[in-house]
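ok trying this again, last paste got cut off
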Amino acid sequence: MNLMNAASLITRLEGGIDGDVHMDGGQIAGVTVAGLGVVFAVLVLLVLIIFLFNKIFEAIYNSQRKKEISEAAQSAPKSDPVPAAAAKPAAPAVKAAAQDDDEVIAVISAVVAMMSEADGRSYRVKSVKPVQGFSGRTAWAMDGRRQNVAPF
């Protein structure tokens, strides 16, 4: 690099510091596109990292869940399946106050008993808990609301 080029470079740098540098439209567009490209590339990278973390934690959770299920299956007593006529649905852990809840639990227990007869394995209902819906209400509350609002 000769002395003239060095002086020209210093002058350009000084002009940039003082704000005397004027960029044409092509340079402005290039800087803008480069900046946006970097931003979107980093966003895509972050999305991929979060996706990978999700997959890793799902795999860990599933392996732990399979381990718990296999341990429970090994520790469970081996028994012959009970015939359908002698099968008694297990009492639910949750005491329902309303008659409708008792009927729902009875239907769930009957379906589980039919499944155990069809599969040849012994199943039982340990508990019945309402599931929270999208709006924060239980499924039963949402059904009641839908029935009350339907006439309107």
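PB: full thing came through this time. Residues 26-73 form one domain.
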